[in-house]
Amino acid sequence: DTAVSQTPKYLVTQMGNDKSIKCEQNLGHDTMYWYKQDSKKFLKIMFSYNNKELIINETVPNRFSPKSPDKAHLNLHINSLELGDSAVYFCASSQARSGTGTEAFFGQGTRLTVV
Amino acid sequence: GENVEQHPSTLSVQEGDSAVIKCTYSDSASNYFPWYKQELGKRPQLIIDIRSNVGEKKDQRIAVTLNKTAKHFSLHITETQPEDSAVYFCAASSPNSGGSNYKLTFGKGTLLTVNP
For residues B36 and A111, what is the distance between their CA atoms, to the nearest angstrom? Predict the structure, then answer.
């Protein structure tokens, strides 16, 4: 009964390939996110969705396309993978609350290695 | 947009000592400040958070202080133990025009090592 689960945990692929990462949360949260953690451990937001609607797109290359079929799922598709895309990608969710933030719960991460 | 600076980047203490990590933020509208702990190979997990209407919050050995005027907040860990060794991240969040917070901006992290 993992709260935020993402698959796969590891992904090794060649440059130029297209890959997807899936994320599901069973917390009933309205908001879901994708974060990228690079080799220096810096956590940077990529996308934020609220009730299936894109709220934030942090100048991510359009090779990255998130999709939210319902508020419990947020998938990430990456086209034409490049070496620089190698990182750990974290999905997260939180409950929207007017006027303040709330705890974000993270998935276990997907370590993407592009060779 | 928001910018969060975190210091130090590495911190080594002896078991039983205290550890302090400091962060500053740039957006005066930020109103939510969580701290996350990330152990090696694991996901970030919330350890404590503070909202802008509170100046200090404590949970056992962990405390956070917030100075809104100076736009800085700090994490204090007392009586450190080897299992406290991890990367700690501060973050800040501000509401959008609709009044909800949809983005956490993280500091670059502090690697804390507690030596037995």
Answer: 20
A10 in contact with B at a CB cutoff of 8 Å? no
Closest partner residue to B100 (CB to CB) among A44, A96, A108 is A96
| Residue written as token pair 């451990």 | A41
Residue of chain B nearest A46, judged by CA positions: B103
Write the CB contacts of B82 (distance below 8 Å, at least 6 apart in sequence). Answer: B15, B114, B115, B116
Q: Which residues pair with A53 in a beta bridge?
A: A50
Q: Indicate the pLDDT class of residue A1, thresholds 50, 70 and 90.
A: low
pLDDT tens per residue, range B30-55: 999 999 999 999 999 999 999 988 89
Give the C-alpha separation, A101 to B36, whole Å: 14
Cα–Cα distance measured from residue B32 to residue B3, given in angstroms and rounded to the nearest whole number = 14
- The pLDDT of residue B82 is 97
**Rounded to an integer, what is the distance from CA A27 to the centroid of its chain?**
16
